[in-house]
Amino acid sequence: MSAHGTPIPMTSYKSGPLKGEAHVPGDKSISHRSLILGAMTVGETKVTGLLEGQDVLDTAKAMQAFGADIEKRGETWHIHGVGVGGFGEPENVIDCGNSGTGVRLIMGAMATCPITATFTGDASLNKRPMARVTDPLALFGARAYGRSGGRLPMTIVGAANPVPVRYATPVPSAQVKSAVLLAGLNAPGETVVIEREATRDHSERMLAGFGATITTEDTDEGRVITLQGRPEFTPQTIIVPRDPSSAAFPVCAALITEGSDVLVPNIGLNPTRAGLFFTLQDMGADLTFENMREEGGEPVADLRAKFSPDLKGIEVPAERAASMIDEYPVLSAVAAFAQGKTHMPGVKELRVKESDRIDAMATGLRAAGITVDEGEDWWTVHGRGFGDVPGGATVQSHLDHRIAMSFLVMGLATEKPMSVDDGQPIATSFPIFEGLMAQLGARIDRD
Ligand SMILES: O=C(O)C1=C[C@@H](OP(=O)(O)O)[C@@H](O)[C@H](O)C1
Ligand SMILES: C=C(OP(=O)(O)O)C(=O)O
């Protein structure tokens, strides 16, 4: 969805106590992958709990353009796929809207099919680097023609006779890893991806679920993932777990608002995703995992977050970065209410998300009265402690849902309200954010 409508300015006001249950939507990463793998499978894959955020809806549309039949009946999405290597050539440009995951995974999935497709996105996506994906796709035999700097719009000419690839990812990125694995599906023989730092492993888990032969081995080189090409996929019934990256917002809101006690049920605690929650506990948050269990091969718990007035700033371990990469914006908002400094190293990937997230957060935090230091690969938030964060700023969301939601959560506990210039991007990942927060007792208004 490239067309960006009228901005929606929003303001959040000191609130609390927040009480009740927050039922957040389905996991965005798993939702994209369900649609793409379903589209690569002959027969009917059924998905419930799919995130109906704009990013995922754009991926659904794209899969239809490549030939899959996708329909929602009742609460279930039904996908009739075309098989591995069966994608047809889209008649039109594929618009992935705001979604890095969507465009990069789909490029991978089509790169070993004998077809050509052109991709575009919104103003944010068209600034993001794509060479990280097109470089390894070239090794399969695919060609990419984009704007300078490897930016969208971009045309990919798929390899007619793909060869398998062995690729060590130069950046810690599940999107790059997944693009290579999806391309490897239609290459004969063994495709190998090596990642120095483990990133989210939803693709590996789901590929195995659909019937691919895929192994993961931790070695001195890093994590080595080996996939056998040209598998026979079996349609699946998928229940998408709730998104820990969305859960982060009500959890953090509860920690910083006086008297709060919020339960966020059924949250996936896959270790490659759960870093924020351990970091908050390290800061002294009253955050507990209740009813720990296993569902669909993933650890799941109900999160209980209570007002935590004595948070302390910490050193966030760099090796934890990949497991909480999307949560640094909201963590930095919480860090403003902690005593002392929170130092966050090893995070240069934050500079190439929907916005430069270090710059976007640092600018807004400073406007709200918080000192922030930053370098290319790190930043430090100087917390002022609970009850001493001025707020009173209007900040830019830069077409970035997580920036918008982070400042709106922050404003629930600052002395003066916090405003964002545009809350519209929230719909990409968390379309029910406003209603859910209101139900808990948060005052977040459209201006
Ligand atoms: O694979 C995925 O589903 C995602 C991977 C991460 O991006 P990178 O691969 O760029 O780190 C993350 O930031 C994004 O929200 C979702
Ligand atoms: C980085 C994100 O998404 P994407 O890369 O898919 O745009 C995100 O959701 O925080």
TrEMBL record:
3-phosphoshikimate binds at residues 28-29, 33, 173, 175, 326, 353. This is 3-phosphoshikimate 1-carboxyvinyltransferase. HAMAP family: EPSP_synth. Pathway: Metabolic intermediate biosynthesis; chorismate biosynthesis; chorismate from D-erythrose 4-phosphate and phosphoenolpyruvate: step 6/7. Residues 14-435 form the Enolpyruvate transferase domain. It comes from Tropicibacter oceani. It is found in: Cytoplasm. The keyword Cell inner membrane does not apply. InterPro entries: Enolpyruvate_Tfrase_dom, Enolpyruvate_Tfrase_sf, EPSP_synthase, EPSP_synthase_CS, RNA3'P_cycl/enolpyr_Trfase_a/b. It comes from the Bacteria. The active site is at residue 326.
